[in-house]
Input
Amino acid sequence: MTDDLTPAERYAAAKVRNREQATALAPFREMYEFGLDPFQIEACEALEAGKGVLVAAPTGSGKTIVGEFAVHLALRQGRKCFYTTPIKALSNQKYADLVKRYGPDKVGLLTGDNSVNGDAPIIVMTTEVLRNMLYAGSQALSGLGYVVMDEVHYLSDRFRGAVWEEVIIHLPESVTLVSLSATVSNAEEFGDWLDTVRGDTEVIVSESRPVPLWQHVLAGRRMYDLFEEETDHGGRGSARREVNPDLLRLARTENSRTYNPRERRRGKMVREADRERERRQRSRIWTPGRPEVIERLDAEGLLPAITFIFSRAGCESAVQQCLYAGLRLNDDEARLKVRELVEERTASIPSEDLHVLGYYEWLEGLERGIAAHHAGMLPTFKEVVEELFVRGLVKAVFATETLALGINMPARSVVLEKLVKWNGEQHADITPGEYTQLTGRAGRRGIDVEGHAVVLWQRGMDPGHLAGLAGTRTYPLRSSFRPSYNMAVNLVDQFGRHRSRELLETSFAQFQADRSVVGISRQVQKNEEGLEGYREGMTCHLGDFEEYARLRRDLKDRETELAKQGAAQRRSQAAASLERLKPGDVIHVPTGKFAGLALVLDPGIPAGRTNGHRGFEYHDGPRPLVLTAERQVKRLASIDFPVPVEPLERMRIPRSFNPRSPQSRRDLASALRTKAGHIVPDRHRKQRAAAADDREISRLRTELRAHPCHGCDEREDHARWAERYHRLQRDTRQLERRIEGRTNTIARTFDRIVALLTELDYLRGNEVTEHGKRLARLYGELDLLASECLRDGVWEDLSPAELAACVSALVFEARQSDDAVAPKLPTGNAKAALGEMVRIWGRLDALEEEFKINQAEGVGQREPDLGFAWAAYQWASDKSLDEVLREAEMPAGDFVRWCKQVIDVLGQIAAAAPRENSTVAKNARKAVDSLLRGVVAYSSVG
Output
């Protein structure tokens, strides 16, 4: 190629090469066996130029290369780099990767569980650890040059997302920020905000997948392509994405297959030929079982595969189904490698715990190349599954959606059993963003030529809806930022109230709220122009028509109000008359389907009163059960009685009367007609309208007639313009209220929090009190409750196990609330302390209501959950794992996770508790030691 160049061109190319060799990027590129993609090069060049970067790219596209370049730059410049991740498992994985490249001396790890080489120039940590360091003014921040925020789209998480914004806002200006995100549809908006708060930030968006993705639907024995062959298979190209007509035909066949009785003709059943055709169709369409799916993928060379099942129990059940079906995906050599690695990784687990943890069943699945992966598993077990999967020794994993959150486990294929999942409140369709995140695991870069996403056929499936999920790239980043009590005292301590308020107004949440106001403001401006035009249209030469229109409106509003009052009064009188009815009263039903003579069998008294009829309670007034003169037994409603009703006569109801017996009804109805059929009910006299005697209406009518505009020939034309003016003015005021509600929302919430903390003596103006300094060291959802418990001495003189039980109530949240069963609690001091915690929470809850701090908006203290107290107490009391898990009825993974969270908060309490005349700090440290044993203590680093 160079031979074809002119000397000048060769000289220019040499200059470019020399310039590239002089950059930090050149030696960095040589560390990789593959060439970097254009978006990676663009991001790295921006970093080297001193800019911050936001990289938004699909899962598996290699975003972390940019983060690793930040590490490379930090080491080259003699500065530090913090690499943050949202979850500990990701931190452990990234730590292991960086240790392989730079050696253990240069890399450290800080998570809630582990602290390894904390003074190293490269430290991998969870985002919460960095947030805590910023508030504490840690010395480790000295010399910090770069911060990598992996999976920065986590800031949408409603529980933890605020931490990402806190870090971004509070990082020193000298730190260069590297933000790595999944593909989001508003990356430019997020980049604009980063540019505002962090300075010059380059936004690099890549939507092309490194490995093409094919979309399929598996129905019966056939694998259908979701799109026709001429599509771009998930790339960014402009090719048309038409749904496969065979799949559409299959859906139509499936939907028309169900027998509909309306299609019967003259009482004949569907013809035999139709039934035969239906049997043939049914033989082609079914949802294949889990072992059948894996066998099919194996036969077509589509393993390894991850099957997403939105249920932990479903994942475990899938493994068992494959074992029972005799499925084996590993040969003898692979089985030996699996056993060797598993025994090495689990050597530290006591043999008596292995049976409790289901070790042998789990090992059998692994040896066959099959495993589950979900949050209920022991962390060690999950990490073994991840390692075996990456090594190709596990070929089929059944996982919940948590696996899609950043763990490096790419597969050749991804299978989705259903497109519906439980979101904590109801079964809801998965979103396009969730579909993209899940299927993004398919296709291993450098290994697979293409990836495959397979959706299992389900009855009623709409291929068009599935194509919409697969073809939509809508995954907007929405801030979940809300001020907290801990955040408030830390901000006031560092910056004072005024500066803190200004800082919070720079949050992404406020940035988005302000941007949404722009569109509303434009609409207000348009409305104001329209109002001006309407004002001209209603101008009257005789006087002020706006004033005249206001009088007309006031008159109409007053008449409407009086009409409503009259209707309400009539309803009240009618309800009162119904309440006076007794069994045996003969009445006349004035209106409705059952108008006419009726006998009251049961008065149907509303809730709060006894009615003696099958325990019915009615919240919308009396609902009498009556027998009509036409022999019908019906329960009437207040709508059947627009006017009061009075008994016409009394009748005895025989004890033998059975409302379900036609004969009984016939006899009693006949007696009713004989007794009262000749009585003509009094007609209800219509009352004089309240408007006729109302002084306000008389005054308004007098003013209206006296107004100059009343005599205008074009009065009604002016009135129509005035009505349009009024409606548009009302709409404009609503928009202005919306603008007011969205402007300074974060700062107003902060003001309410500060007011409550001032009331409780945590703050005095810009001063943080001793109580406030204690709160500043307590991070968590129930930070204020923990601080109040320390302040009131609730945990004094508790044993370490009792303290662990109490602290568990601050962190635990049951996956599904079960208010019907009271949780088992330790007796004695622990039970009393837990009760006192709930009482303190009740006091705080009342205060939050008084200060308008709303839990529904993500601010405030939820009620402490006592569901883990017994398990924490038992474990800290040295009970066996078997006994604790059996009584807790909880998976080992959940148990370990909650224990580690309790340990984390105990550590905070030990640091925040008073040093003098208090046993809490000492017992908190002892409680940590009591909990940190057995399965909870197994290190996951290495």
Notes: Confidence is low (pLDDT under 50) at residues 231-239, 258-270, 607-618. The CA atoms of residues 628 and 668 lie 10 Å apart. The radius of gyration is 36 Å. DSSP finds 34 helices and 24 strands in the chain.
